[in-house]
Amino acid sequence: GTGADNDLYINQAIVFIEDAIQYRSINHRVDSKSLWLYRWYYSRTCQWILSLTITLILALAFIEKPSSLTLTSDVRYRLPAWNPPCGLTESIELLCFLVFVVDVSVKSYLIGWEEFWKNKWLMAYILTLVVSLTDWMVSLSFFCTEVVRVRRILRPFFLLQNSSMMKKTLKSINSTLPEMASVVLLLAVHLSLFTMFAMLLFARTKDGQQDKEWVKYFRNLPDSLTSLLVLLTTANNPDVMIPAYSKNRAYSIFFILFTVLGNLFLMNLLTAIIYNQFRGYLLKSVQSSLFRRRLGIRAAFEVLSSLRETPANAQQSYVSVGALLQVLQKAEMDSRCKQAIMRSLKMCSYDQLSATQFQKLFEELDKDAIKQHPPSPEYQSHFMQKMQFAFGHPYFGYLGNVVALANIISICVVLVLDADKQPSERDDFFLGAINCFFILYYLLEMLLKILAMGLKRYLSYPSNRFDGLLTVILLVLEISTFAVYGFPHPGWRPEFMGLLSLWDMVRLVNMLIVFRFLRIIPNMKFMALVVTTLLDLVKNLRAFAGILVVVFYAFAITGIMLFQGAAVPLGNARITAHCSVAPTNSWSIGQTTLMILLFFQAHFIYCLLHLLFLLTVNLICRWAKIYFVAWWLISSVIWVNLFVALLLENFIHKWDRRCHPESLSDIEYQRTVELMFRDVLEEPTEEELMEKLHQHPHLQLCR
């Protein structure tokens, strides 16, 4: 009866608040059993198991045939790689598939069958599982000897469907494709026209000595198109124009016009279009997340207002403070937010909360993480107070930056003077002595800062932790050097002892000193702006990195299947290719082509690494050009421009806010994307929230 209903309302409110915290949709079943299953599914343990399963099935590519478990990656020199026996990786795959079957079953049940048929991602999830399991059974029937395994290409989908941000990103990319297609078409027209011009300009003549341009780059239509496509990436610039330029300087006009129109105009126009489409991408995404959060909080209010202990009111609904406290005690949320909301509730002078008051309490979720720095110690001695003022002043930090710069300059001078000297002629006395002096200063600086600020306050700043850690490491290395090789003195060149030679120890110390110089970044406003922009991209745009992993993985697996056996090593020097390589091209390009084919059939790791290299390489295996052009279009043309657009949006927003700096003397704000756009977000109206709630497929509101 009433008690059971109240328990149900409490559990519904708990789940809705947790949905709001995680920006999840509230359109799921809300009966007692479904709520228990829902909370179990989104528990840390279940989500950790799901993430581990996705990682595991993606990592199988590193041990499957061709295996990456070899010391060297070059198939000409390495020993036969260990390949797992048939059934080992297949057993792991089956376990992963079973987890995914449970995952899709629970998701489908929780949203309801009516919503399931509207969810294209879940239907694609099931289709992917069906195809993968079918391919798995085919693989076993062939005793794992088949070359093509479709399920390997489909594996990145499991990562893709598990991230709502990655889905939103794909949706935004899809909406941008028509505009990008128009520029790509214009780029193709530009490439085709100049290809025709090139074939006419550099046609074959009677004089074979003057036909170097035709022989190397413009022998036929495919070669001409490839040469200009690679020139569009500037990978073969200026090699492609050297033979023609050597014959007649006027030929340079053709290449200059092609580069200016293609690179400076069309490629930058593509960047502008992508930026224009994505200029509001983050804002729209955050606005949608804000609506989900407000909707979840309002849904919690509505179900709590249905409790029997809440007095009925025809005009307005209320929620008792006691009911909300009961919900907060059971809800999974950040302890800082929970304590702040409870403090606000205890300070309330009323027992009932209106919808506005209820929503205002949970605005604590929108506030960014605030780190309060501990106070500095209070000294009674007048001398110690002066010491604290002097060594806690920003000018003392500036002095440390000047000393660090002097250390860098001294290292540069020594390196320049010793650049041409043989190791036996090098005297490490001067470099060892100055390093000893500067490291002692760094130690003294760290101790004086700790004296002025106190250890807890000193460690509360990331820049101090970075500085202090490197100082301690430098001190340990210096003491180890002295213990093994003695103190610096003229002609200090002792024999090799221990794990590292003296020169190796000195070089390691110098590298850490150079790295320590990054401490100046927080003191340089504009440099700090650039660095924080990059850090924000790393922290908040993980969805784009995830899609990049998906693209790399899919192309790497496809490359392994396409080019397996394309190049066969016959020894340390001879390599044969099973695809047509233009024999008249330059030696370096031909060797590069063959080596990359070798790496593609070598193993998964090098496929990933060489996809980065293939952004600009001139591959001439003709039938494989479609693969490499597709990779170039997706990675260089689309994805790099997409990243540039997002980088610009983030940087411009920070640049516009630089005139309104916040006081960061004792409080450190750790910004997120949500708070970054907080001042331009629009709060949803009550009508919008109630309309959405009344459309809930499983929740029946009393009003």
Automatic annotation (TrEMBL):
Which InterPro entries does UniProt cross-reference here? Ion_trans_dom, TPC2, Volt_channel_dom_sf
Q: Name one GO molecular function term.
A: intracellularly phosphatidylinositol-3,5-bisphosphate-gated monatomic cation channel activity
Q: Which UniProt keywords apply?
A: Calcium, Calcium channel, Calcium transport, Endosome, Glycoprotein, Ion channel, Ion transport, Lysosome, Membrane, Repeat, Transmembrane, Transmembrane helix, Transport, Voltage-gated channel
Q: Which GO terms describe its cellular component?
A: late endosome membrane; lysosomal membrane; monoatomic ion channel complex
| Name of the protein this chain belongs to | Two pore channel protein 2
Q: Where are the transmembrane segments?
A: 45-63, 92-110, 122-143, 180-203, 251-275, 395-417, 429-448, 469-488, 508-531, 543-563, 594-615, 627-648
| Catalysed reactions listed for this entry | Ca(2+)(in) = Ca(2+)(out); Na(+)(in) = Na(+)(out)
Q: Which organism is it from?
A: Bucco capensis
Q: What Gene3D superfamilies does this protein map onto?
A: 1.10.287.70, Voltage-gated potassium channels. Chain C (1.20.120.350)
Instruction: List locations, semicolon-separated.
Output: Late endosome membrane; Lysosome membrane
One GO BP annotation is:
endocytosis involved in viral entry into host cell
- Report the family membership: Belongs to the calcium channel alpha-1 subunit (TC 1.A.1.11) family. Two pore calcium channel subfamily.
Would you indicate the residue range of the signal peptide?
A: none
Q: Which gene encodes it?
A: Tpcn2_0
Question: Its domain of life?
Answer: Eukaryota
Question: How does this protein lie in the membrane?
Answer: Multi-pass membrane protein
Q: Which residues form the Ion transport domain?
A: 68-278, 395-651
PANTHER family per record:
TWO PORE CALCIUM CHANNEL PROTEIN 2, TWO PORE CHANNEL PROTEIN 2
